[in-house]
Request: fold
Amino acid sequence: MSIRFTVNGQPQEVADTRGTDRLIDYLHDDLNLTGTKFGCGIGVCRACTVVMAKAPNPAGTQIVSCSTPLSLLAGAEITTIEGVTPKEGLLPIQQAFLSHFAFQCGYCAPGFVMAAQLFLEGLAARPVPVDQLDAAIARAIGDHICRCSGYVRYAQALKEVALSVLAQGGDAT
Amino acid sequence: MSASRTKPGLAGAITADGRLSRRSFIASASGLIAVTVLGLPRAASAHSTQPMTFPPGALGKPGTATQRIDGLAKVRGDKVFARDYAARDMPGWPAAQWHALYLYALTTDHAFLGLDLSGLTKAAQPRRIVYGDDMSKSLRSPKLVRRRDLAIDEKLQQAGQTGKQRQGFDRPTGQEFDLIVQPGATPNYLGQAVALLLFDSAAACRAAQREMRFRDSDFQAYAADVSRSENMGEIFPPQTTYVKYDLNGQQFSYASADPENYLAEVPGWQGRIAAEIAAHPDYITQPIACDMQATDPMFLEPEAGLVWYDAETAALNIVLGTQSPDGDVRDLAGMFGSADSPVKVEAINLTPCSPGGGFGGRDSSPFTLMLALAAPFAEGNPVRLALDRFEQFRTGLKRHGTIVKGALTAAPDMSLKLVEMNFAFDGGGRKNLSPYCAALAALCAGGAYQLPMANIFAEARHSQNISGGSQRGFGGPQAYFAIETALDDLAAGQGWDPVALRRANLATETSTTVAGGPIAQELRLAEMLDLAAAHPLWRDRAAIKAGFAARGISYGTGLALSLQAYGTSGDGMVAAVRMAPDGSFSVQSDAVDMGNGSATTLAVAIGEYLGTNASSIEMADYDLFGQTGLTTDDPEKQRWANPRWTAKSTGSSSACLTGLHQVHTVKETARAMFEGSILPAARRLWQLPDLVSSDVAWVGGLLVDIRGFMPPLSHRQLAQDIYASLGTDTPLPTGALGHAYFQSDWAEADFDTAGGRLRLRLDGLACYGAEGAAPKPIPRQNTIGPDALTTRYSRYVWAPCLNVIGLTVDRANGRVELQNVLSVLNAGRIHVPELVSGQSQGGIAMALGYALMEDMPEGMEGPANGLWNLNRYHLPRMADLPLATSYAPDLRAQELVVLKETPGDGRAGRGIAEAVMCSVAPAISNALFDAVGRRYASLPITPQKILQGLAS
Reply:
């Protein structure tokens, strides 16, 4: 028996004897995709955030890859920072994080990008009133830990892009 | 082709895989060891990039940064951190790698007997177990090189104790505990390794980690009998004593006394101080008693790295993220250069990676040694050591737990007379930089104030706890907490206004520190106090408090001031500025960017002189020093008269060394490049032999003759001329390599260049020629350098910061919420405003955690027990911080007011990475006092402590 899923659109198949392996280790060791960062290993810091699309959430949810065993991935579509980054250029949220000097050491940045991009895509599909945007941003990235920046510039950058998405009736890509 | 088999030239060369490399040499007991610093390998993925390069279109205007130069790689998740790399990513390395796992001591009261791994499944069995007695002494207990600031005190103290001057800075052997405990011995501290397990697959290593986690005692055996470990409670030398007396025309201080007799004279002057106080019964004495727990730097990337001993080339290849590549490589040379080294090491090849945060926790971290230790036991395979977070908490360097006692004495007219403080730093297991942190705390004990008398003592002692080390603030946060809370208590006790009390005693540029050294730098503290006092957060504090009270909420406002020193008692820096044939520039620096933005700042620092920013930068190139032609050896004791001598090569990288020290070095080297190459090129191209720098300016990326006589020159034209000159009798340099030394003032000298004689605030200059050729040192002349005795000032430059905190307290659950922060900062010249405010915002967050949240008990109740992670060590999150950046009523904001630069700044910036953090914790405690009328003097001030205080 095997577990089948995709990572950034590429089909994966692993023996179910590896069901207890962590997704983050699979990304690092098997696929050499190291953009997803290991921070705490217990799902608290969210540096290892990737997006998983799987029924009943076909649009995708953020998951912590350090605490996600491969056994949960049957039929899942996983997107990592390598998958979400365009081949040329950057996503608007990546550019905004750069322009706002949002991060410092940058180790948390891929996790923030994944969560923020998922939020923006959701925002485009289901806009929220502007006066509720700060609270929505807090829900989207408020649990992510950044030790360097104090979060101010992350929040500013995401709000700028979110307002742009809302103003344009939304395209987050 | 092996990375270690590349043949870098002295100047630096390109390896077969396109990485820049440089080489220098370190003398070891068994001969010279060649040290090569290699650039990061180009990843084979679609996202490969040079990590420190501005992308096209993002170069920005000269002197201005549009984004972090390392930002693109990081926001895309490219490989830039040590944790991202495996042996297969390293060109020339064997692809298969082993994995290392250390097991850590569970007690310091019983002898370690050994392991019993029979409980591990077959899949989790190690390929090899290495105990402390499996290795040679030099490997197990390496002699470390620590030439940190204030080391001179240590020599003096040793001289006083032994009656003779000791050579070098070696530590007493009793304090260099074994890296791995030998079976039969009692562990010296918690966090000390008891065994190294080596696995030949990642799966086996992880399985072992998983099976042993939280069950250490099932696998480690200890003797039943109690056997207290040796040296427990011993002092980590040096101790620091600052006694100052400056009254009635009599002066005594650390800085002014004869170093040989200082300590002997101290008791007499302490007696005079006591007599002075006794003679004034009207003086008011405010006791000081506070304490702080140890905290974890909690940089987000747990320490990780790769090492490979290549027997064929006798090379130790190592990949890691460190703040101190210089010291680390020297320590490795000490380990493997000893006569009893198990392997012969003739070369160390270091690939430094971007550290995923540092905050001092990667400065002289034992991790480097632990990683290297594994190499000789891996049967020729590369080894990966990657701590998980439990292990990082368990063994990583900590901010010291500290107990402070003392008193502050003032006259009835508010004038401060005396500060007395005793700092007891818990140094934990290894000495590391603990006594030097304690020493800086002693210097900071006088705060931002002029004090005629001081009686300060600071020491760090060995304990069973996890090792302490350099952390953001380097002892400052403890000291400022002590004095700034004492000031508020003094003011409250006397009915004085806390701002008026501070204003009456502010240090100025004519003041001296508690060490007796001159301040000699514009501080503008009064202006900062005025700004804060007039700000609505402080001015309207009573009304704001009443507004909250009307809603049943306790609110308080607190203020605190700090005068954090930056740099050490003597700093050497090196930088190269090189021009490519296409006219673009690159910078190389010995500095490490831990995320603080040094790379970006240094890349744009050349803009003023060279009309464009550097397109790329390489950091951690500390061995550039080896190419300057300088030496720190001075057998004839000529000091600056020796044209090849400098006081210090390079040191550990601290974020606060950027604003002044590193920027100066890069800018002065850029000036040398301009005056010594570009200007003479322009003279030739324009055929204006008398052209001087004041005749030209950079306009829109072109060098223009401001008199309008000549057509503008592009960087490319200038580069073409410079490169064309290389084969002629009058070659022009393609780059400059500069070394600077700062110790109260810059060393400066004349250098004869192709552009004429230049007076530079550098003590070493070399010029690059053709690609791959060694830079050619230019003999310096007419050198003026800092006097040796100014090291007794301890520090010379300061970054003042004032914080006002407004917070609320939930009396039901003890929860404290920061409502507003006002930070007033004197940062001198601002190089990159976004980086300065970013450091402020990050500093406030870190200080909030330090003051209120990060609760980590010592001993086996704390992280040494292997149970600690972020589920119980709580860091500030977004909701804990005010996120708006301008104060407004009914908004949670952190407003940063940066003083405008004045001529007094001398166009120089200040190192501010630690400054904002230092006065946040005391401002929080002062605000709590205002809110609930209780003094909370024990950090962290947890909700439980709040409730206990309210109940008392």
About this structure: Chain B touches chain A through 70 residues (CB under 8 Å). Confidence is low (pLDDT under 50) at residues 1-12, 44-49, 148-174 of chain B.
